[in-house]
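Lab notebook, bench 4. The sequencing result for the construct came back, and we need a structural model before the next group meeting so we can plan mutations. Quick request posted to the team channel:

Model the 3D structure of this chain.
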Amino acid sequence: MSGLFRCLDMENLQFDFGQLIVDDHIITGEISQGHHVDIDVVSKIIQTANKFFHGEPWAYISNRKHSFSSNPMVHQAASKFEKNMLVFAVVAQRPLTQNVAEIEKQFKGQGYDFIICNSLPEAMERVKRILKTASKG
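Done. Here's the predicted structure in token form:
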């Protein structure tokens, strides 16, 4: 089957900053405890998207299981050179993580939705809905 929702074999990729799970035009990232997310980490995520999705629309889900730091300006920098990411979703199950995500949302780049979810299943459902709507044009 071709098109936006063709089935890909799920890939679990390990990096020095954590793991990325790639499936169905969605990358779910789990950053390691104590790691710092900067433009180099974001570049690796975008390179992974380009490798698997070949210029088609995709989404990133940040599954915030662990505590880590990030430079919120990476959102604006990334949006300047990655036009195919349609959604950036944050799974924030703890109040502090939700508050941080709300602040981070203020720095989001242009061209994609930034959503905050309470669970991974909720994030998957919302992201898939957005991608499906986008594929219909």
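The longest helix spans residues 120-135.
Will bring this to the meeting.
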